[in-house]
Write a structure and sequence with these properties.
The complex is a heterodimer of chains A (178) and B (189).
Chain A: H1 11-22, E1 25-30, H2 37-45, E2 50-53, H3 57-69, E3 73-79, H4 90-96, E4 100-105, H5 118-130, E5 134-138, H6 144-158, E6 161-166, H7 168-171
Parallel strand pairs in A: 1-2, 1-3, 3-4, 4-6, 5-6
Chain B: H1 6-16, E1 21-24, H2 28-35, E2 42-44, H3 52-62, E3 68-73, H4 74-79, H5 83-90, E4 95-101, E5 104-105, E6 111-112, H6 121-128, E7 132-135, H7 139-148, E8 153-158, H8 173-183
Parallel strand pairs in B: 1-2, 1-3, 3-4, 4-8, 7-8
Antiparallel strand pairs in B: 5-6
The chains are: A alpha/beta (178), B alpha/beta (189).
Chain lengths: 178, 189
């Protein structure tokens, strides 16, 4: 496979990977998004981490539960459109009280061009909360590291279920013309 | 097609792989696993349809030195069918997915499922990239694959539509999780 030249990732994305790696995360399951691209790349190049590409986000809820059952910390990366796909699968987390950390890049908000991202983007926070998952949100790049690190402690030290919403402004305007 | 008795198959398989970690999909597969005798290395699902295979994947990656088996039905696997592609991509050598296929949704009144309406699960698994996908009517052959850990492996087990008496595993997911982790010498959290 040819390595593709890519510009340096935003610092906040580098910080997320550092927090996950230092926090002992050994499985990173994902449906890709541009905002997760650095973490996904690092997950596949770090020999201590399994990067698990999913066909749909709900698989990832089960993968991270299975990882915990076997003694590993895992995280699920997705974009807001994937949260609705997970709803019934979230019952696994409550029923067994699995620790659960997910990082969600938001669509359907800041400078959104594609109206089809709107409905699920507007329902993302409530969908998590309906299923008993605590939501924290971050829009300031300088606060990403601390927010993710605090969520990771909540999850793996206190056994909580936490979703971190990464606001669309962090990712910036999407270029539609190429 | 030679269709087997589900209870006999699961009992023979679990007896042949006593150290394997086993995840069962909701409905009859969980009853079959429990009827074969409870062990702390069993994890029974009662819901989260479609979770058996991907949950077993996360477990298999976390426990590479143990054989991990997902035992589920055709309906449960169909709901999480994409997880076969996810398993093929992750390539866990220690994971075997066993689908007990009666061609019907047994728990909801025996409506026909896709596997009796044209879907060939072995072809699907191979198409997703699990090259070791086969009809597992010989329990010894399935057990040999589980123990060999050179997978991932997909075993398709045609079974009859008989519904044996229900054997209900514990429904307290927290207790089952904690027992399972304790068997691996892991703390509750």
């Amino acid at each position: 496979m040819m390595a593709r030249m890519s510009p340096a990732p935003p610092l906040w994305q580098e910080k997320i990977f550092e927090v996950l790696r230092k926090g002992g995360v050994e499985q990173i399951a994902y449906v890709p998004d541009a905002g997760h691209s650095h973490v996904i790349r690092e997950a596949h190049s770090d020999p201590g981490i399994h990067g698990v590409v999913l066909t749909t986000e709900e698989e990832g809820v089960a993968v991270v539960a299975g990882a915990w059952l076997g003694g590993q910390r895992a995280v699920l990366l997705m974009q807001s459109s994937g949260v609705g796909n997970c709803v019934n699968m979230f019952s696994l987390l409550e029923m067994c009280r699995f620790p659960f950390l997910t990082l969600v890049t938001m669509r359907g908000e800041y400078a959104e061009f594609n109206p089809w991202q709107g409905p699920m983007g507007r329902a993302t926070q409530r969908a998590f909360e309906l299923m008993g998952i605590t939501v924290v949100r971050v829009d300031d790049p300088d606060e990403v590291e601390d927010t993710v690190s605090a969520a990771l402690d909540n999850v793996f030290e206190a056994g909580e279920r936490v979703a971190v919403l990464l606001g669309q402004k962090l990712i910036g305007r999407k270029k539609w013309e190429r | 097609m030679n269709r087997l008795d589900r209870r006999e198959f699961v009992a023979s398989l679990t007896a042949a792989v006593p150290d394997a970690l086993i995840v069962s999909g909701l409905g009859s597969a969980s009853y079959d696993l429990f009827a074969a005798g409870h062990r702390p290395g069993n994890f029974y699902l009662w819901g989260a349809m479609g979770a058996a295979a991907p949950l077993a994947l996360g477990l298999a990656l976390a426990q590479p030195d143990r054989s991990v088996v997902a035992v589920t039905g055709d309906g449960e696997q169909l709901m999480g069918i994409g997880s076969l592609g996810t398993i093929a991509a992750a390539r866990p050598a220690n994971l075997t997915v066993v689908v007990l296929d009666n061609g019907h949704f047994g728990e909801t009144g025996m409506q026909q499922s896709h596997t009796s309406l044209g879907t060939d699960l072995v072809a699907v698994a191979q198409g997703f990239g699990i090259s070791d996908a086969f009809v597992g009517t010989d329990v010894a052959a399935v057990a040999e694959r589980v123990l060999a850990r050179r997978g991932p492996t997909f075993a398709h087990v045609p079974i009859t539509t008989d519904e044996p008496p229900r054997a209900l595993p514990p429904r307290d997911g927290v207790a089952v999780k904690n027992d399972f982790r304790a068997a691996l010498e892991l703390p509750t959290f």
